[in-house]
Amino acid sequence: MSINTINTRILSTEFEYFEPSSVEEAVNLLGRYKEQSAVLSGGTDLLVRIKQKRIEPRYLVNIKRIDALRRIEKTPELLRIGAAVSLLEIEQYDFVRTNLEALHEAVSSIGSMQIRNMATLGGNISRASPAGDSPPPLLVLGARVNLRETSGTKSIPLEEFFRSPGRTIMKPSELFINLEIPNPPKESGTAFLKVARTGMDLAKVNAASMIMVEDNVVQSCRVALGGVAPTPIRVKKVEELLIGEKPTDARFADAAKTASDEVRPIASSHSHKRSTAQYRINVSGVLVKRTLQLARGRSLERK
Amino acid sequence: MKMARIITFTINGKARKEPVEANTLLVNLIRERLTLTGTKYACGIGECGACTVLINGKPALSCLTLAAEADGKDVVTIEGLNDKISTVLRETFLEEGAVQCGFCTPGFLVMSSYLLKEKPKPTEDEVKKYVKGNLCRCTGYIGVIRAIMKASEKINN
Fold it and tell me: Are residues B98 and B124 in the same domain?
């Protein structure tokens, strides 16, 4: 349905609305109403889809009043970000700005100030857009997702979380609790870049790299891309190509070529939405090379 | 299925109690019930920023916020912006020709007063970053950026 034929001035769908104050309460509601329920957090995506009648949930569970999900905490080993923490809070969090550059660059690049103040990391990830901006940096940082339902909790690597555009392994009865990002390897650097039509637009292609250089040799490396497959992906062939090698621009040019060869933009959606498959293939390589160069510089600055 | 609930909140400094349906949007409550029509409805999908209000001091889109979410919160609309920053911004918007039809102006004023409270001396890049989510379809952005920079100078001198 086109946006011009529907009234977005009101929310015409009727639903029952809940504001649980604890995770237990929220999980019980999701367990009871399952696929008839939807989790409301920032609302910047969910309410748009309800207005457009793409979904019609009968029960809305607002998780923004659950204190446990609004926390961002740093332990000696990791950073834990609650599902309902806003993108703006993450952008302004010191450890993210100073140590997780790729994540900082990704969240700061999303939408507008208003959107970032409302939208949450849990939402950006669970939406499972192939071109979401937070997944590539979180993939190269090795993040894990913690889920909960009435029968118990589950912790899975983010890499195993996405299934297809808009779909994750999460069941309707499960609640995204938080995301855990281990401290990046000492003296590593990360970077994120994207290509989009305008500042507010979704990415055509986005990329993140993590690299650790020691004695002029790549000790550790991870590369991820968005917008070039049904889900955000790690590009392991590129990683294998670089580990144990010198981090030269020539090597990175090989990495770019490998990245372009590896990606398979799905023609049905990715050729039509925002750019052609061939464009995405070409741009993937360029972004991989540039993020590697940026990450290399940051790794060397940490010495 | 629709369940009315009573919410308590402050709007522009005044405490209010209002019954709302689960699917009432904050923009509907503000414009239709409270008749504060300075807040504009335009795109309805979070692209244009015309409906921007401050909730607990932070900018939010009232067309993508349920009225029920305002329970216990402090909401400020363009009508409630009466401090020095907002007054100077109103003047500089006029002086710099930042207004043509005026439909986007309340959203721009809410955003730029939030900016100048956070960063009294913003750079031009910071101004652009803050008003990136506000669209103007008449006059463009140059006048708006000039107006905000000029307001910052006036306030700091």
Answer: yes
